[in-house]
Amino acid sequence: MSAPRNDPGSAPVSVPVSVPTPVPVPVADALTLEVVELIGTVVARYHEEYESAAARHALTGAQARVLALLALEPTPMRRIAQKLKCEPSNITGIVDRLETRGLVERRPDPSDRRVKIAAATEEGRMTATHLRSSLGFAREPLAGLSEEERGMLRDLLKRMLG
Description:
alpha+beta
């Protein structure tokens, strides 16, 4: 396909216009579609239960996720944002609210005092433990699988994630 180009004082010239070649999209087989749908259902149910458990502790889901991360280890604010794939300014607000409740505290990074590290307090670690233990949906279906099946599922999920 060509488009005319007009330059003053010259005859029209045809310039080739590139048309993108459509990329073929593979058609998913029925089994793949069923697996994708089941994964989506599991994720949705997990999020529903997580939000409900967080609310029982007067936390939002985002606050509960940050608290769960910090209960594992003190973490620089920027790294929390990277792990949760959100803006650092969002983490600042979440940590502010958790700090007001006495669940986390900010500390200077011993290796770079310009960096702030957020850490769960003892109360924050206890709250994170109670929150984690209240997530039945995340645990109960896995309990019906043998250790070998859980290991296979873990390995397959890791493989899917690359």
